[in-house]
Amino acid sequence: MNFKKIFFPIIFVTVSQAAAAQIQEIPPQGEAKVKSMTSEVLGVERGYSIYLPKSYTVEEDRNYPVLYLLHGVFGDHTNWVERGHVQDVANRLIDGDKAVEMIILMPDGGTEWDGYFNMDGWAYEDYFFNEFMPYIEENYRLKTGKENTAIAGLSMGGGGATVYGQKHPEKFTTVYAMSALMTLGEGEGLNQDDPKFQELNRTVREESAVNFVANADEETVEELKSVRWFVDCGDDDFLFDANIAFVQEMREKQIPLQFRVRDGGHDWEYWHSALYMALEYVSHGFMKE
Fold first, then answer.
1. Which CATH superfamily is domain 28-286 in?
2. Does the predicted model carry a pTM greater than 0.85?
3. pLDDT at residue number 25
4. Which of 103, 274, 254, 106 minimizes the C-alpha distance to 177?
5. 3-state secondary structure 89-151
6. Distance in angstroms (rounded) separating the CA atoms of residues 289 and 284
7. Tell me: the pLDDT tens digits for 205-215?
């Protein structure tokens, strides 16, 4: 009998099975998925994207801090997944110990309308705070409370994130604004002949992040100081002056913030690179607890 012909196949099968078992034990990478929920406030089925870190599926008793990440005008909840590559960025930073494992929520602020504020016939801000955030807290394993919650966004979403942080400093530990739509002057704005964009422009003027700081009383200023602020804008961005105006008002009121001006414009190349800094910065806020 030829024992070599019998022995080596057995060894090969045994080693292969052991290797397969080890591979199955390795946690998967974090993954971003597109989901939806029914909104009674808006009266529609509302989409959102969510990134869950790699340990979420295997550590079932663990809760995670959360970042709400807002898109820009003409966009939707898939932008940060498809164009910002949030899954790849988050996985790379987490694997490199430059960011903590977190859940990232990307709501849809576009589609039927564009904007993160309450408009005539579209109460998006009510939806976000009274319906979307409670829905997420109920259906996913979040660490709740200010110290575990951050918000960020680009362009229209950067302005929305800033105003949300201003109006609700008790909810967010960090605000990261990229190329943010901080304010609009009279006669300024996109698609002014479109009634829906007229509403968007009106609400941005009324909810001006610049004016909010300029008009803040002492109590409000102290509340704003409880938030970690980061403003990130390209030197060729058409919203550069509005971001400078916001920073100047913050400095006038002696509200600490980080401010970065980098080479670039109002585009996804800039926002993709900003996401690396944003996830690392919000992680430092989460680790303060």
1. Alpha/Beta hydrolase fold, catalytic domain (3.40.50.1820)
2. yes
3. 55
4. 274
5. HHHHHHHCCCCCCCEEEEECCCCCCCCCCEECCEEHHHHHHHHHHHHHHHHCCECCCHHHEEE
6. 10
7. 999 999 999 99
Q: What is the pLDDT of residue 187?
A: 64
Q: Tell me which amino acid residue 136 is.
A: I
Q: What whole-number distance in Å separates Cα of residue 26 and Cα of residue 137?
A: 28
Contact assessment for residue 151 and residue 194, using Cβ atoms and an 8 Å cutoff: no
pLDDT digit string, tens, across residues 55-102: 999 999 999 999 999 999 989 999 999 999 999 999 999 999 999 999
Q: pLDDT-based confidence at 5, cuts 50/70/90?
A: very low
Q: Which helix (H) or strand (E) holds 259?
A: strand 258-262
Sign of torsion over alpha carbons 10, 14, 20, 23: negative
In angstroms, the CA 134 to CA 13 distance is 51
What are the domain boundaries of the chain?
28-286
Kindly write down the DSSP assignment for every residue of 25-85, as one continuous string: HSPPPPEEEEEEEEETTTTEEEEEEEEE-TTTTT-TT--B-EEEEE--TT--TTHHHHTS-
Q: Are the beta carbons of 182 and 239 closer than 8 angstroms? A: yes
